[in-house]
Amino acid sequence: MHLTEENLREKKFHNELQSRPKGRFENIFYKAINNAWEDFFDFLKSKSKGADILDYGCGIGPSIKKVINFQPNKITGIDISEISIKKAKEETRNLSSRVELLVDNCEKTKFKDNQFDIVYGLGILHHLEFSKCLDEIFRILRPGGSLLFIEPLGTNPLINFYRKLTPKSRSIDEHPLLQKDLSNLKIKYKDVKIKYYGFLTLIFFPFYKKPKESSLFSILKKIDQFLFKIKIFRIFAWSVLISAKKY
User: Fold this and answer.
1) Number of domains the chain contains
2) Could you tell me if 152 and 126 are in contact, meaning their C-beta atoms sit under 8 angstroms apart?
3) How does residue 25 score in pLDDT terms, banded at 50, 70 and 90?
4) Contact, 235 vs 158, CB < 8 A?
5) Whole-angstrom Cα distance, residue 173 to residue 10?
6) Which tens digits make up the pLDDT trace of 183-201?
C-alpha cells in the first residue's frame, strides 16, 4: 500500500486518536447536525437492498452496524488506521458474513473498476486529497452508482477561528470543504445534490440535549433549512450532505 507523507500523518493521527480512552471533546457538537445523520441513513435505507457497498474510511464501524440492517448484498469497510479496523472487527464480529473490513488507502484502493453500487463516508474526504478521491470513487463505482458523504465546510469564519484555537483536535492536513471542491464534484459527477446543515442548531446546541426529543431542535433545523435556501447563509453552515451519481 503506497502512502504519501500526508497519508502517513493521517494514519498516525487516527491510530493515536483510536488509542485514547476517550473520544474528542468536539464530539459534543455533533448533535447539532443530527438531521444530517437522519437524512444520510434515510438515503442508504432506500438504496442499499441487494447493493454492494463501500464504507469509505469506516473508522471503528458505527455506520456498518446500521447499514447492514438495510439488507445490502455486502458491505466492505476500509480505513488507513490498523487500530480502527481492529476495533471495527471487534464491533462487527457478531454481524453477517456479508461484512468485510480492510486496511487500505482511500486515495488509491485495491479494488477493481466498477465494483460498488454505493460508496459512502462520514467526515473522511476532508482528510484526503479531495480531487484524487473523487477520481478513485468514480473508478470503483459502477455506472449509475451513488456516492454519499457528510463533510464539514470551511466557510464559517467563527468555526474556522475555533479550529485555529484547537489545532491538536485535528490533523494538520485536514481541509474542510470549500466552494471550489463542490464545483469540482459537479464537473465529475451527475445528479449532484448538496444539502447544508448546522447554523442555528449549532449556535444554540447548549439549550437542548437529545435532538430527537427536542422541540427547540425541531424548530431550529426548519429555520436553518429555510435560511439555506438563501445562498449567502450557506457560508455559515457547518456541514453538507453530498450525494451524486457516476455517469
Assistant:
1) 1
2) yes
3) confident
4) no
5) 8
6) 999 999 999 999 999 999 9
Longest dimension (CA), the chain: 49
Closest CA to 4 of 105, 92, 86: 105
We report the CATH number of the domain holding residue 181 as 3.40.50.150
CA distance 225 to 198: 9
- Contact (CB, 8 A) for 150 and 37: yes
Cβ proximity of 240 and 40 under 8 Å? no
Reported confidence tier of residue 95, pLDDT bands at 50, 70, 90: confident
Four-residue CA torsion sign, 116, 71, 101, 96: negative
* pLDDT confidence bin for 16, thresholds 50/70/90: very high
Helix axes 130-140, 179-188, angle to 10 degrees: 20
Residue 147 pLDDT exceeds 80? yes
- The 74-79 sheet, strands edge to edge: 99-103, 74-79, 52-56, 116-122, 141-152, 239-245, 190-197
